[in-house]
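[Q] Does anyone have a clean structure-token version of this?
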Amino acid sequence: MDIQLKRGLLDICVLSAIKSEDSYGYQIIKDIKPYVEISESTLYPILRRLEAADLLTVRTAEHNGRLRKYYHITELGLKRIEDFKCEWQEIIGIYNFVTREEEK
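[A] Here you go.
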């Protein structure tokens, strides 16, 4: 898969994983795992990039005596998910065009 396309899809997956409630790295990986394989070394740069783009915010809280970073989606992050849903319809159209010969 094209690396830029995959990168964009992983960004949307991470945003979607925290859409309904704040979450932390390990839980995000667990939530995404049934759909796409993602490692910690892939996730944390994505989280930093999304934070830099104001698509999520980070807060630190103590959990079982340790500090844990919790990620929260912003309004801009929610808008990015909605934009993706609209863009996906165009991608489906392109896929249908590319595979039209195979359907005959």
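[Q] Thanks! Anything notable?
[A] The mean pLDDT is 92.
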